[in-house]
Design goal:
CATH topology of the largest domain: Metallo-beta-lactamase, Chain A
CATH class of the largest domain: Alpha Beta
Number of helices: 15
Strand content: 15-25%
Distance between the termini: 56 Å
Largest sheet: 6 strands, mixed
Helix content: 25-40%
CATH architecture of the largest domain: 4-Layer Sandwich
Number of strands: 26
Structural class: alpha/beta
Number of domains: 3
Shape: globular
CATH superfamily of the largest domain: Ribonuclease Z/Hydroxyacylglutathione hydrolase-like
Length: about 450
């Protein structure tokens, strides 16, 4: 058997290629849109990708089922409960798919979404103990899938949570303890709140150590997994809809280079200016109105938290980052990247009127400002679970996913300092506020961690 986990750290997303060496038949489960890795591995092992299986209709990224089907002729497979616009092979609970010696078994495990399934993998069809189970967003290492992402669709989070409890206890926990667990996400994903950085486990380990599986009372389970979840990222609804649609395939062409006058024209027409450089480089000088989302952080996810998906995007940072930036944005369905600024350094020298810097403060400077500026607005952009251990006194808690919808709660006439845990999200937030018209905005270098370490509380 060929079994490979393709883990994408920048999205905390796991996809899988499973092949039978005796027949050369293979499937890919939960693929991302840029599919070259799957095609290369299949070619290396002489495999034919016959099916693309999605464990559910994902909301946190745009999946590559259409791209793989177009490239290989593979059949797209979803649960028979899925409602999509393109032809699929419906999968039913208990169905077995033979690749030769390797056999897959479908488990219907609704809860995270109504159409969620898990895929049990057997190296040989008559094995009593499976090799592993691909759990999608039903079971993670250390957590279970959040049930509140379909709020507003007529399905309550409590109803889905109760269904998830049944799926876990009646399906997954019936598997032998030695069965390996391969989820669709790890730590950092917004699809749960306590995901481990480990990307695999076993049913036995999760039975013993996963907090949600320790809760045998269904009411306690429902309360535990519905409380303290981060706000639903604004792009999740968009991606969920796009994953149902017969949408255009991924455009792999690099973004065209644009002169500064063209960039300014696009900005006047409503395009978002996105600078993907690291924090220090952005802070020292950037195009006025540009929002900073550093490529080395949770780039695509952060962009999806703050940008609407229906606007053009112009990249205005380092041109060497353009191709990777475009690819990562496409993974969350942001396909409207219309260009890249040709030469940022020349703008610094030839058009200084278009350049600005970003204010950043240390913990000690912030402590002084809090005493000197009574009108200072302190904004904590961490998620609810992160603020349980404390906030800086006087801070307003506005998680980054909620910032763009909460800007009116802040006074543009008064200074603002944003902070997060370590500094990445706060500079994103500060740049959003600056681009929205706030004149006096800073972010806290090192975030809440630096504030605590400085002992100035």
């Amino acid at each position: 058997m060929i079994f490979t986990q393709h883990y994408l750290a920048c999205l905390s997303q796991g996809s899988y290629l499973i092949g039978d060496e005796s027949t050369g038949r293979a499937v890919v489960v939960d693929p991302r849109r840029d599919i070259d890795d799957y095609l290369s591995e299949a070619a290396e092992h002489g495999l034919r990708i016959e099916r693309v299986i999605e464990t559910h209709i994902h909301a946190d990224f745009l999946t590559g089922h259409l791209e793989l089907a177009a490239a290989t002729g593979a059949q797209i497979c979803y649960s028979e409960e899925a409602d999509v616009e393109f032809p699929v092979e419906p999968l039913r609970d208990g169905q077995r798919i033979s690749l030769g010696e390797v056999t897959l078994e479908v488990l219907a495990t609704p809860g995270h979404t109504p159409e969620s399934i898990c895929i049990v993998v057997y190296e040989r069809g008559d094995d009593e103990v499976p090799y592993g189970v691909l759990t999608g967003d039903t079971l993670f290492v250390g957590d279970v899938g959040r049930p509140d992402l379909l709020a507003g669709t007529g399905l309550s989070s409590e109803t889905l949570a109760r269904t998830l409890y049944d799926s876990l206890h009646d399906k997954l926990l019936k598997l032998p303890d030695a069965t390996r667990v391969f989820p669709a996400h790890g730590a950092g994903s917004a699809c749960g709140k306590q995901l481990s950085s480990e990307t695999s486990s076993t049913i036995g380990e999760q039975r013993r150590n996963n907090y949600a599986l320790q809760l045998t009372d269904v009411d306690q389970f429902v309360a535990a997994i519905t409380e303290g979840q981060a706000p639903r990222p604004r792009y999740f609804e968009f991606d969920s809809l796009r994953n149902r649609e017969l949408r255009p395939l991924l455009d792999v062409k690099p973004p065209p280079l644009l002169d500064i006058d063209d960039v300014c024209e696009h900005a006047r027409a409503g395009a978002i200016l996105l600078d993907a450089r690291e924090q220090a480089a952005y802070a020292s000088g950037h195009l006025r109105g540009a929002v900073n989302v550093g490529l080395q952080g949770r780039f695509a996810e952060s962009a999806g938290l703050i940008f609407p998906p229906d606007r053009d995007i112009v990249l205005v940072g380092d041109a060497a980052l353009a191709d990777e930036s475009k690819t990562r944005l496409s993974r969350v369905g942001f396909d409207r990247v219309i260009g890249q600024l040709r030469d940022l350094p020349s703008v610094f020298t030839q058009r200084p009127d278009l350049v600005e810097t970003a204010s950043r403060v240390t913990a000690e400077q912030l402590a002084e400002l809090l005493g000197l500026r009574p009108g200072l607005q302190l904004v904590d952009v961490r998620n609810p679970g992160e603020t349980e251990d404390g906030v800086i006194p006087g801070a307003q808690e506005i998680p980054l996913p909620a910032l763009t919808d909460s800007i009116e709660s802040l006074d543009q006439r008064e200074p603002v300092v944003a902070y997060c845990a370590s500094g990445y999200r706060s500079l994103v937030a500060a740049s959003v506020l600056r681009a929205s018209g706030f004149a006096d905005v800073s972010d806290l270098v090192g975030g809440f961690d630096a504030w605590q370490d400085a002992g100035v509380a």
